[in-house]
Write a structure and sequence with these properties.
This protein has one domain: Porin (Beta Barrel). Helices cover 4% and strands 56% of the residues. It has 3 helices and 21 strands. The protein starts with a helix and ends with a strand. InterPro entries: OMPP1/FadL/TodX. Pfam families: Toluene_X.
Length: 407
């Protein structure tokens, strides 16, 4: 009993620490071009992709967009023909940017609000892994005020402070049946905050190629006084003190990106980005509960995550003054090592394909749409702590829409 509860509680921080939870849906033009943008001048989303490029933007921007995310996953337990599917849920990552500065000035100010990490899934209360996870709703919202300075006609720099506001709601079953035979349940909810920064450099070369370098720092997000709610039979309620709270830390990793822009003609723009995510910060998890019993103890659980990388490419073709077509794709490696894959978002190597359209509705108003298909390679694992064994197969479908006003 004690071992089962410790295993159950120990999995909470995995919700924020898998390559699959870095959603990267920060701009529709950039999504359409395979998530490239660090080495390009496109729109206000430079606040996220490369603050250094912001001072080079020829116009000011106010823009907002959303990318509804449909996550489809299936689990086949080892040695069986059973297949469990997560329920249809709609996550709504969003982004908003404002960029302002005098025309032809050497500086610009900006503010970005975006969701770089998040997840929403529901496996239900009757599947093989219900004691690991029933449902999850995670949101991490970053607020980034930004300053960018043009040092010369060919180089600009920029940076911004990041404030993260996160929330989590997670449920899982407890192997304690009531008089009707229904399992108990644990619900863990809380809000946290963290701080970081984002900085970049943008360069125009004599060869006509543009280069961008961006670094988004690690953000240690602390959850204080999260609620731990246990629904268990009356005979064991003393082992699960109520009300109860917990304190924990969630390390959201740093990201380093090198990007290039190529311009074969006035109609064509090509881009290439290489990206390294510092998941090595996720070495272990520790939880401190306000009320302990012989059953409910504070936990320390190793994770030993590894850095992950991605390579992205994209293209834009301006078919007319008011119309642009975009396409791209990429490959990303998994952060979770063997033995630490969980059902929150089953982490695996993946590839993705994207496309998009841009249309100028009016002289200063643009609409951009995008679509992404992401395929995670099937991964057969036995989790070291829960002993949940089987094969995960997952796909992600992401449409997107944004409006931009520029002057």
């Amino acid at each position: 009993m004690r071992k089962l509860l410790l295993l159950m509680i120990a999995f909470l921080p995995v919700i924020a620490c898998a390559q699959g939870f870095q959603v990267n849906l920060a701009g529709q033009k950039q999504i359409g071009m395979g998530h490239t943008g660090t080495g390009l001048l496109q729109d206000g989303a430079s606040i996220y992709f490369n603050p250094g490029a912001m001072a080079m933007l020829p116009e000011n921007y106010i823009q907002a967009g959303m990318s509804p995310l449909f996550f489809k996953s299936a689990f086949n337990p080892s040695g069986t023909n059973d297949v469990y599917h997560n329920a249809d849920k709609l996550a709504t990552p969003f982004s908003g940017y404002a960029v302002f500065g005098p025309k032809s000035s050497w500086w610009k100010l900006g503010l970005g609000v975006y969701t770089p990490f998040g997840g929403l899934t529901n496996w239900g209360n009757s599947w093989e892994g219900k004691y690991v996870l029933e449902s999850l709703d995670l949101k991490a919202i970053y607020f980034q005020p930004t300053l960018s300075i043009k040092l010369a006609d060919f180089i600009s720099i920029g940076g911004g402070f990041v404030y993260n506001r996160a929330s989590v709601n997670l449920t899982r079953a407890i192997p304690l049946a009531d008089a009707t035979g229904a399992d108990g349940q644990a619900q863990l909810t809380g809000n946290g905050k963290g701080y970081g920064w984002n900085a970049g450099v943008f360069i125009k070369t004599e060869a006509g190629i543009t280069i961008g370098i961006d670094y988004r720092s690690k953000v240690n997000t602390t959850i204080n006084s999260g609620n731990a709610i246990f629904k268990v039979p009356a005979s064991v309620q003393a082992n699960f003190p109520q009300p109860n709270t917990f304190t924990s830390g969630i390390p959201l990793p740093s990201t380093t990106t090198l990007g290039f822009g190529f311009y074969p003609s006035k109609q064509w723009t090509l881009a290439l980005d290489a990206n390294l995510v510092g998941w090595h910060v996720y070495k272990a998890l520790a939880f401190d509960y306000a009320s302990n019993t012989s059953t409910l103890q504070d936990t320390y659980s190793p994770r030993l995550y590894r850095d992950a990388f991605s390579v992205r490419g994209g293209a834009e073709y301006k078919a007319a003054d008011k119309f642009a077509i975009r396409a791209g794709g990429g490959y990303a490696s998994a952060a979770a090592p063997d033995g630490y894959v969980t059902p929150e978002v089953p982490d695996a190597n993946r590839y993705y394909l994207t496309g998009g359209l841009g249309y100028k509705i009016a002289n200063r108003l643009d609409v951009d749409i995008s679509f992404e298909f992401e395929h995670l390679f099937s991964r057969t694992q036995t989790n070291i702590e829960s002993q949940l064994a089987g094969t995960f197969r997952s796909d992600v479908y992401i449409p997107g829409l944004s409006l931009s006003y520029h002057w």
